[in-house]
Design a protein that fits this description.
By secondary structure, this protein is α+β, with helices and mostly antiparallel strands. 62% of the residues lie in helices and 13% in strands.
Length: 474
């Protein structure tokens, strides 16, 4: 039976029908090809990731960190005071002028007639006064001003070093977290292969259903671990972006660690001695203690030594009527009590116990003693801190060496398994398991390397040397 519609034959196709079908298909493909090409040529709006190295990360953090900028700004006032320390020898200058009117007309009794002389009701006076007070404490105060500026610079340098240390450690932690996520995903892929194999064995009746379900449960248990690791990594990258002054959603690519970490021999006694002197916190405390001692010395001289006061004042007074006479008439300007004076004064309150001056000096003296004790305590704490860092570095070095042996053993096991697989003595799943074990061993070794580098960062900061001096790569 043949069914015909027009010239198209829905039974045995004719040559014309085949030709027309190919023609229509060709035209359709020709019509839609430009659309497909245009879709392929649409540029992606995703920005290219920014390549960041540890040194570049440190530079960006120092240039953009708001806390550091605030610390620098706070030291600007100290810088200006230090540059103009000589202004303590500039006398204070007070100038004033008074135009007034008496309530009653001033009268002066004269010995000759007319016996009563009435002066102008309005009056005009001026005053110009120079005063300079000098004390031994004034010169000590100059040293205090310079010490405060120096202490501020050390505080800024300490903040930069802390920021650099934290940025470099965060950089290494991000690299390690990225490696951990990659390992979890590899483990999930390996579990996925095991599920497929268990499913095949279950369908073939080689294993019971419970074994198949156990493998599925083990695979699904990895999902929340991967999600949690990725979420923590996103939070860490956002925090790292804020460190660098970037938006929280900035896209960047971190340069991986190149080469192997070189473990060094640490001389504990020498490093502890250097840290007790050069650690930024110790240097900052030392400068602050110097400032406080300068304050105490200045207060001592201000309280217990006399002060030399130099003064000069002029008080020209207009003798005429300011409402009628010309102010520019020099004959009408007279000086009443203008003078130059030298005064030596000594306030004796500080010599009397229980006065506020005496108590103020005792308070600052107690403050110096307390900071001295705090300085000694900080030095002892630094020594213990450096000792702990060195011990932890030694432990990490030992663990890293053992982990390296584990990596060598895993590599050897994988080679043997691959050889057995090629000879038909092992299944491919066993090869995959040994590959995963090797990756885990390498991740453990990498983690120990990062721990060692971060420990070196803490040690370099503690002994006050540039980062990379000990490790060379951090």
């Amino acid at each position: 039976m043949m069914i015909k519609i027009g010239v198209l034959n829905f039974g045995k196709p004719s040559k014309s029908a085949v030709f027309i079908s190919f023609l229509i298909l060709f035209l359709l493909l020709f019509a839609f090809t430009p659309c497909f090409a245009q879709q392929d040529e649409v540029p992606s709006d995703a920005p290219a990731p920014m390549a960041i190295s540890p040194d570049k990360a440190v530079e960006m953090a120092i240039n953009n960190n708001l806390g550091l900028k605030q610390t620098i700004l706070q030291n600007e006032a100290k810088r200006r005071s230090a540059q103009a320390f000589w202004n303590v020898f500039i006398p204070s200058i007070d100038a004033s002028g008074t135009l007034g009117r008496f309530n009653n007309i001033p009268q002066t009794i004269m010995p000759l007639p007319p016996f009563i002389f009435e002066g102008p009701q309005w009056f005009l006076t001026a005053s110009l006064q120079f005063t300079l007070n000098l004390n031994i404490g004034t010169f000590v105060g100059i040293k205090q001003t310079l010490d405060e500026y120096t202490a501020g610079k050390i505080t800024i340098e300490k903040a930069k070093l802390q920021l650099e240390r934290d940025v470099r450690k965060a950089y290494f932690q991000l690299l390690l977290a990225k490696e951990h996520i990659a390992l979890l995903k590899e483990s999930y892929a390996n579990m996925d292969r095991q599920v497929a194999m268990a499913q095949a064995n279950y369908r073939a009746g080689l294993i019971p259903e419970v074994n198949f379900l156990q493998v599925q449960v083990a695979r699904e248990n990895l999902r929340p671990l991967i999600d949690e690791a990725e979420n923590l990594y996103r939070i860490a990258t956002a925090s790292f972006a804020f460190f660098l002054g970037l938006p929280y959603d900035a896209v960047f690519e971190l340069a991986p660690l190149s080469g192997e970490v070189e473990f060094i021999v640490l001389e504990a006694q020498d490093l502890i001695s250097r840290a007790a002197v050069n650690k930024p916190e110790i240097e900052e405390l030392r400068r602050l203690l110097s400032v406080l001692k300068a304050q105490r010395t200045a207060l001592f001289y201000n309280l217990y030594t006399p002060t030399l006061s130099l003064g000069f004042n002029m008080d020209p007074t207009f003798r005429g009527d300011p409402m009628k006479d010309e102010w520019t008439n020099s004959d009408l300007w007279k000086q009443n009590q203008g003078m130059f004076r030298i005064t030596l004064a000594w306030r004796l309150n500080a010599l009397i116990p229980f006065t506020k001056e005496f108590q103020a000096f005792q308070a600052i003296n107690d403050g110096v003693k307390a900071m001295d004790l705090g300085m000694s305590q900080a030095v002892q704490g630094t020594k213990m801190e450096v000792y702990n860092i060195i011990m932890q570095l030694e432990k990490t070095r030992t663990t890293a060496e053992a982990q390296k042996m584990t990596v060598d053993l895993a590599e050897r096991t994988l080679r043997l398994t691959e050889t057995a697989y090629r000879n038909g003595l092992k299944q491919y799943l066993e090869v995959q398991n040994d590959e995963l074990a090797l990756r885990q061993a390498r991740l453990g070794a990498l983690q120990q390397n990062y721990n060692y580098l971060m420990g070196l960062l803490d040690l370099e900061y503690a002994i006050g040397v540039p980062f990379g001096t000990l490790g060379g790569r951090n």
